[in-house]
Amino acid sequence: MSSELLVDLGEDPATAQLGQLKLATIEDQQWPADESTLSKSETDISQRFDGGSPHLPWDHPFYDIARHQIIEVAGDDNFGRKVIVFNACRMPPQHQLDHHKLLMYLKGTLDQYVESDYTLIYFHHGLTSENKPSLSWLRDAYREFDRKYKKNIKALYIVHPTMFIKTLLILFKPIISFKFGRKINYVSYLSELEDVVKCEQLLIPARVREYDNKLRASLKPTAQPPMSPPRSPPLPNQVFGVPLTLLRQRSPDGDPVPVVMRDTICFLSDQGLEIEGIFRRSANVTLVKEVQLKYNSGATVDFREIEDVHLAAVILKTFLRELPEPLLTYQLYNDIVNFTSVSSDSQATAMKTLVESLPEENYASLRYLITFLAQVSANSEVNKMTNSNLAVVFGPNLLWGRDNAMSLSAIGPINNFTRTLLDQQHLIFT
């Protein structure tokens, strides 16, 4: 993985050459379309909408954008930052895509996360002379994203960069700031992304994986990049990535709420309620791994000794995201995504019924978490974390599709459900 600095040099004659830059035809234009990668839960819903976006009706203003799944949200990275994915290969030919609407759709997505640290991953493979946007559009798009979008983006990873994209970035030097340029990283192989995010949680298009394999095969044996590391077998005292039922069986007192949740929430209740931006900041990845290893080794973790509120917050989110099944369970996925169809007068009752159908460990853990988040929200004048802000952070960590990644059109309903859960928690958990 490499990072290249794009220094702000002011106006440059190279800008005039942007319109002349052409993208050579590449062989992957003849590749077959991706196989369907929708999870079963998403497929069930999509049957209602005539083969388009899994969750947006055909008359939704962004239906024609969402159905291509160009933009996706893929949970948190290894630093606790939200991950936004842009798939170039899913962009249809220029005449079939409203690029202005695509830009508005991307801005609408980022608007949910720009107050928190986030990571952007751009899969470049599949951008051709047929589907690439105009260079003037790219220039205007960069200018459209003002400081609020650029401040908290911690890294932009360009996967499978070509000479075209590298040349483009050089020519765009005059309008790319020095600080933003330092956030741009080139990623030559998918395995390099493992340092940033677990690739299994990214819904990587089939043709991108095929292209990555093709690149590997073309290398000499001595130059082969490392493959993604295999999953380590679970440790005897493993805590992360273990079902809640098993954690309860191992618990000396049979507590249905896992020790990680109890430790982090207890510490955050005492030390974090008045910290501005709690749950919005990332943490040192080395410390995160050290704490995870301690838990997985059966050791006791005392966050009061570490004295790092953001570390405890990231550990809590990471624990929830690494559960083999989301806290709200796959069984409730369809009901939650379609919850907006429930009338506002009936939502509290319907939500109470759904939540009470959860397994005992899930219900107890959810109640413990939501009760704590209500305390966080009660201090929102100081910490700036309202129920809406908390829902954006925790929604994707409470529910996702069976394929780990989820389409943007599912994020809204999940976040709305989480916000309502927080708004009505005093009625639901009684």
Automatic annotation (TrEMBL):
PANTHER family per the UniProt record, alphabetical: RHO GTPASE-ACTIVATING PROTEIN 1 (PTHR45808:SF6), RHO GTPASE-ACTIVATING PROTEIN 68F (PTHR45808)
SMART domains the UniProt entry points to: RhoGAP, SEC14
Descriptive protein name: Rho GTPase-activating protein 1-like protein
An individual GO BP term: negative regulation of endocytic recycling
GO CC annotations, alphabetized: cytoplasm
Organism: Lates japonicus (Japanese lates)
Domain CRAL-TRIO, residue spans: 61-216
Domain spans labelled Rho-GAP: 242-429
Gene Ontology MF, one: GTPase activator activity
